[in-house]
Amino acid sequence: MQCLGRATRSLALPARGRGPVLRRVVAVARAKPEKSTDQALQGGLDPYLEVAVPKDQRPVNQLAELKADPLYSWGALEQGDYVKRLAGVWSFFFAFIGGPIAYQTFEPVDQPLEWFLSGTTGALVVVAVVVIRIYLGWSYVGDRLLSAAVPYEETGWYDGEMFVKPPEVLMRDRLLGTYEVKPVLSKLRSTLVGSAGVLLATAVLLFGLIKAGSDADGMYGRGAARVPRQILTDGVLYSSRVTDLSQLATDDDAAAAEAEAQGGVPGYCGDRALRAYAGGQYCQKFDR
């Protein structure tokens, strides 16, 4: 019986010893997914190939950060979503900045085209600045992906080093730079060229409208004088049928013609010097 008891205990020992072994097996199994996940982030390569470079300075990780960034990720969007984002930026700045600023010069009711072109110009400048900012970020990462060696900093600017990419890393980075970054840069460049063209066309058209509608003194919009006009030593006349201010006191037809030419606005309101001399406050309600 004693022999049987010792044999039973000896058979039970392996069963009790399985605990540490199982724990080690579970720990190894849990460690494998972490390694495979790290390799997936590195494009399937062994992460130790780039162990010298801090993770946040590796080009492949910088590309992933671009794709996840709230602004830089616009470059990787589909064409439709990309255009919607830029249109949203234009609409916001036109409604709250460009349009109100243009309103100070142009009356939307009387000069809708001039007001729209002026506000559009300001909003397009903001859109161009946003696209330039996105382009610079993608261009920087693209250069690091396509380069055979990249600079990095171990702890700060004072201990910079140069990392020469192993062949596997260089091939992966150049594939990413060619097929992911270059199409984005091409799209951003097209946007910048298109924005520049629209800005130029808008500015030229607006300049032409202002030039055509300016008065004899080169003023346009609010405060511009009505033309044609005759500036005399003792006043201003707007009707070609009147040659002297004294006619208005004796000739009813001349007075009616002058009133029609003035459009119901006092004559001195159309000349900035006489308007200032008269105080000009009464003329404000006649301004466009």
From TrEMBL:
Keyword annotations from UniProtKB, A to Z: Membrane, Plastid, Transmembrane, Transmembrane helix
Stated name of the protein: Uncharacterized protein
GO CC terms of this entry: plastid
Domain of life (superkingdom): Eukaryota
Disulfide bond is among the record's keywords: no
Keyword Plastid in annotation: yes
Signal peptide: none
TM region positions: 86-103, 115-136, 192-210
Subcellular location: Plastid
Stored Pfam families: CGLD27-like (PF06799)
